[in-house]
Design a protein that fits this description.
The protein is α/β, with parallel strands linked by helices and 345 residues long. It folds into two domains: 243 residues, Alpha/Beta hydrolase fold, catalytic domain (Rossmann fold); 65 residues, no CATH class. Helix content is 45%, strand content 19%. The chain is built from 13 helices and eight strands. Strands 1-2-4-3-5-6-7-8 form an eight-stranded mixed sheet, with helices on both faces. Helix 2 runs parallel beside helix 13 and helix 6 packs antiparallel against helix 7. The radius of gyration is 22 Å and the shape is globular.
Amino acid sequence: MKAVVWSLTGLLLVTAGLGAVVIWQNSYNIREERVTIRQGGDALDGVLATPKEGRGPYGLVVFVHGDGPVDATHDTFYRPLWESFARAGYASLSMNKPGVGGSAGNWLDQSMEDRADETMAAISWARKRPDIDSRRIGLWGASQAGWVLPKVAARTPGLKFVIAVSPAVNWQQQGRYNLLAQLREDGASAEQVDAALRRRETTLQLLRRGASFEEYRTEVGDAQGMTADRWRFVSKNYTADATADLRAIRGTPVLLILAGHDINVDVADTETVYRKLLPGPGPGLQVEHYPDATHSLVKHGVEQSEVRVTLTALFAPRALFAAGFLADQRRFLHHVDDDSKGGTA
């Protein structure tokens, strides 16, 4: 009986210790405030994360999400970034997508124009707050945000910077690259690749003639996860291309972040286009490569294992990201601030 008691006591102590580690590792040196912004008659809720030290006014990083039903914290994935930006004297603003959390609407009803309008509304809201320095507001966005960030930057006078993480340039080129890369990773045969490309071409033809979801399902057969809402979203956005908007933001400091294990976006093509359209170095374009990172900038070895992802997220969430990812963005913000003061980067 004594042995059982001591064993249970030891188990409880270990469990309590592990719980304490999880709480400690998932505590961040930021203050979080729930906020609501009105856009187009709808209310979007989200989070304003500010540094714990000081009372501002702080610079601001406005987050623009990638694809999917993303909440304000991206299932807590953003918090290490918010903490890192806070160390540079910046607050972070991130909203639940429409239809997510308490935000009204449906994100699948949005075009990239709608997403840009939503982001501009968030900037306008932030500029009215006394704890935000309206001269030091910039954008952070990942993946699908690549079509939103340049659009917002081109239309927003005085925007301080853009941080673009794994962005694509052309929707259709990105889709083809992603399809082929995924097929290679899955070990698809030549026949399977040909069939997938034929299916893709049929889909594009249907999109070009404005076909309904019912027509798509009839023509293609197995919808493979496509829904009526998703078909409507793709129909609105499949012609998206960031080229013209990128040309319009020359002179805005841009940090382009690219991963070495990205099967979603052709990073070589993205870098070529950004370097062609945006001047650098100096106050223009800065490019950072992370050879060991995936599309989400998580370490490749970690993302390959569900067990490692789960344990790292619980016990060391800041270690999810590729080495240097957080520090390089913080350094970029310091350089942007130094340049605006007439200092040297």
